[in-house]
Design a protein that fits this description.
By secondary structure, this protein is α+β, with helices and mostly antiparallel strands. The protein has a single domain, classed as YaeB-like fold, CATH 3.30.2310.20. The chain is built from three helices and six strands. It is globular. It starts with 8 loop residues before the first strand and ends with a helix. About 9% of the residues have low confidence.
């Protein structure tokens, strides 16, 4: 079962809860359709294997310390945070944009 990105939350038995900030949702809606589709594919890959090499999942520093980033395309990134409470993992996406838009 895969995520429909128009859903605000995903609550599945063996997968994390997925949430989107209002900023992320606005950025996703404003992004070109190719980016929206690429995000959907990257998110599905993340749900299958959060550390798949294609995603280049890595922690961030500086103003984004405590957050992580995955590659959506060669230039587009999604910034998120993983929170673990007991047996539950919540992954919340906060920003979506090009490398330059996000990091300057």
């Amino acid at each position: 079962m895969r995520l429909n990105t128009s859903t605000a939350k995903l609550n599945m038995r063996n997968e994390p809860d997925i949430e989107f900030s209002s900023v992320f949702t606005k950025q996703r809606k404003a992004a070109p359709s190719e980016i929206t589709e690429a995000f959907r594919e990257a998110l599905n890959l993340y749900l299958d294997d959060p550390h798949h090499p294609t995603l280049r999942n890595h922690s961030l520093r500086g103003k984004f310390a405590g957050y992580r980033s995955i590659d959506i395309t060669g230039d587009w990134r999604a910034i998120f945070r993983e929170d673990h409470t007991g047996q539950k993992t919540i992954v919340k996406f906060y920003q979506l944009g090009t490398h330059k838009e996000l990091y300057g």
